[in-house]
Structure formats: structure tokens, C-alpha cells
């Protein structure tokens, strides 16, 4: 809700984003992510996270559970390039957890500036490695026909490129898009039997 001149708006559940000075927890399977946003002072955000993590640790301890510091990490997302290398002081169970610049979450590699460059590089590497499979299947003496190769490419190549594309695609620079397109074209040339161009 919003408060202005001692008047509060109606309450509304947020489906996206984290409100200023807010903490949100998102869980999937046996993992959870704690997200905090706020004013530009990173230490203040870390302090709020540490208070929340202490409360969470107490909650878990009462149920004979424990947060694992060795399996935990922290990442700073910022538009300020001078802050990208900041070591975050986030404490779990009395131990400072590691700060990771490019965490992988549900198969998508994030980076501090949301440019998704590491993710696009990983896509290219995976498509290139799968192109080798297509080349093996496209042998001139016994190889699969063009239709089977295209179906295989869609299953093992295009699926890599299209995974979570709405999340990362709008952030990529032209160079990264071009690199992905070159990898896709090379795989398609192999799948269509144009081996000399691949």
C-alpha cells in the first residue's frame, strides 16, 4: 500500500518486483531466494537482510532445521558499474556467505547488471556442442535425412535458445544476439545438409 499525508491506499498484492525497503522470499522446490531492495546504501540493505536471516534462522531452529551457509550465496544487482565488485556482508549462521556475480537460477545465468552476457555466452557454447551431435548424425554415408536432423535440432538446439527467452531476450546487446544467431545458423546449415558452410 501507499501512505500519503496519513492516508493509506487499498492493500494490493504485488506480483512482480520488490518494493523499496522491502524483503521478499521466493521459493521453488527445495531452494529459496531472499530479495531486498532499497536506497543506494548497500550496507543498509545487507543489515536488513541480516536481521531477516537471523529471524529466519530462529524460525528454522525451532523446527530442528538449519540454513546452510556453505550452500548460500549473495548477489548484488545494480546499475552502478562501480558497485559490481562489492563484497556483500550477508551473514548466515555466524558465517559470511560468498558473493557471486553470476548466479544460475532455474537454468538462467544472471549477472549484476542484468545484461545477460554470461547467459548468452553459455547458450552459444551449448548450441556449438550440440552441433557436433548434428554433424555426427549427418554423416554422408549413413546419416539421417533432413527432416530427422531438423527435428533433432529443434529438440537439442532451438530448445536451448528459446528457454526462458522472455526473461533475458530484451536485455541482450546486438553483439550477443548476433553471436547466438551465428551459432543457430551454423547448426541449421548442418541440419539441412549444407556441411561446407558450417
From TrEMBL:
It comes from the Eukaryota. This is Reverse transcriptase domain-containing protein. It comes from Stomoxys calcitrans (Stable fly). The lineage of its organism: Eukaryota, Metazoa, Ecdysozoa, Arthropoda, Hexapoda.
